[in-house]
Every structure is written in C-alpha cells, then in structure tokens.
Amino acid sequence: MSVFSSRRLSRWVIPATAAVTVIGGGAAIGTFAASADPSLPPRSAAQLLVDLQTARLDGLSGTVVQRTDLGLPGLPTSAGRGSSDLTALVSGTHTLRVWYAGPDQARVALLGTLGESDVIRNGDDLWFWNSRTGSATHRSLSLGRPSGEPTDRPLRPDGLPATPQEAADRALAAVDPSTEVTVGRSAKIAGRDAYELVLAPRDGASLVGQVRIAIDAREYVPLRFEVFAKGTDQPAFEMAFTQVSFDRPDPAQFAFNPPPGTRVTEQSGIPERDPKGSAAPGRGPQHPDGSDAQWQTDGTGWTTVLVARTAQSADGAPADRFAGLLDRLPKVDGAWGSGRLLAGNLFSALLTDDGRILVGAVRPERLYEVAAVRR
Asked: Is the pTM of this model over 0.85?
C-alpha cells in the first residue's frame, strides 16, 4: 500500500488553519532532543520525495509527542493543561499513542492526566471514546455510503494530523513552483536514522519559514514533522515519534467494547468531509462559535486565505459565545471595513464587524486585501 495516495496528496498545506487560529493559546516549547547526526548515504530532495511516494507501510505503532506554540494571545480554550479532550491538542504539549494496520484499522489515543480519549477505526466501525466523561459515540461507516466511496477518513475530529506521516502528507501538497525543496541534516529520531526534507515558501507573504520532515532511512515514512515561523529557530508546531515499531499491531488493539456504564450514542453514515479533506464526527467545517460554515478559498499554495461567514444574532451582532472572544482581540479598520484581528507568529485571523472571518498562514495585510474584494 502506498503511504501517500494521490487523493491524499490533493490536500493543501494546513487545512485546519481556521480551527487552530481562533482557539489559540500555548506555552513556550523547545525542539525534540536528538542524538548526534548519523552518517547516511546521500540522497537528493527528488529521491526523498519519491521515497515518500513509494513507501509501503503494513503496520505501525508508537508514541507521538506533539507541541504547539502559535504565538497567539492567551485565549480561553475548552480544555486545560493535562486534559484528555481532543480539543486540547491545539496548544501546549501532548502525548498520543497510535496504532495502524491499514486504512480500515487505525487508532489514536490522547493520554492526559485527567483521562484518555480514543478514536478507533475497525473496518466499518468508528468509535470516539472519552474516559473522563464516560461517553462513547459509535458510527457505522457502511450505512449511507455510496458504492465505491472510500472510507479512509482522518481520525482526529479537530482536523489536525494524528501522526508525523499525516502532517507530512498535507504539507507535500504545497510542493510546486512556489516551494523550495532541499535536504537538511540527518537525525536520529526514536532511535532510528532519518533523512530530513526541507520545504520553504518562496512567497514572502507567507508567515511559514520552513517545514522540516524527518524521514526514516529504511522505511521512508515520516518520524518527525516541524513547522517554523519566518525568522524563528523554534518550531511553532512539531510532532515526533519518541518510540516506534513497524510491526503490524495485534488486531485486539482495534476491537473496542465500551466499559460498563459508558453512555453510548449511535450514529450512521460517513463523517462529512470539507473540500480540504478534514473531517469531524458528524459535522462539517465549523465557525469558531460552533456553527456550520462554508469555507471558500482565495489564492493558492502557502498564501491561501480561507473565508467564511460567521453566525450572528437577530440584531446582527456575533453570537454571544463568539462575542466574548472578540472582546479580547484588538480592533482594526481600513478600506475593507472594521473588525478584530488575531495575529500569531504562524497564522492570522480577521473577524469583521459585518460577519466575515478570514484566516491564513499570512500577514494581516494579506487578509485586508482579501477582505476588500470578498464582501
């Protein structure tokens, strides 16, 4: 099986930009520790790209550490430090366990001091389980699926990648003439030798400085994924295996039986997928206030801007929950109108007073330009 199918490679670099920027937060982070650079046979950037495309992965399990610091204001989140809720993954440092035995057998578990949350795919059964709340949602993917419709949907309901492999999958969609691709330094990740592929936007309007992908020197699957904001030497987002095995996991890892007393919600059909490939448990893409949204795009590649309308109350003001967030953001105005700006080191989001939200890995000036023409 190819690690990166052509359909998966159609995703653009960071489809969950909106979800990340409007929730925000995070703490200072450092890079994952690595030992001395191993001596590896030289491989070109083109060879490494081919390696990624042609690698075969029959099984994988391991521990992944994710760290996020987007340089955003300390805005309230729905889950605090040590939480096992999947929404907590947009900031701070978190540990996940992953198991993979093919597109129809996969599991991701977020481990927290307050409990554990799991997303489990086993054939046509998809489970979401939260040990802290004692609740589980079961979805049968075979019901409501058109004939021939694939079901290898992303596991994480927040749309963010679950492994370095999935993160690299999305970033590789940006490999076009707007991207400079080079080979970085070799590294040792989770005890394994790895090459490093470096992607850098040529467009100065992007806030992304570099994307670094550490690739296993034998299996050619990503072991570490890092995103650096322009002008910084600390990653704003990174995830890496701290332990990994390429043996096929025991099938028992994918068989989920709700513990006694668990509140189970039954659903049917395939989770909706937005045009950029992300999925949520039973919902399509959403506004920051939780309502459904239809995102449009402006531009291509690294400077793409997502645009949508926000939910408003009868008097035209943003919904109460969203208004509380707006009050904490600085006011901005221009020829495009007025609104509030959320600016970090990697993403910017503009929330206009006339009910629009614009977000991207770009400087605020780029959002203002788009806002002026998309009214």
From this structure: no
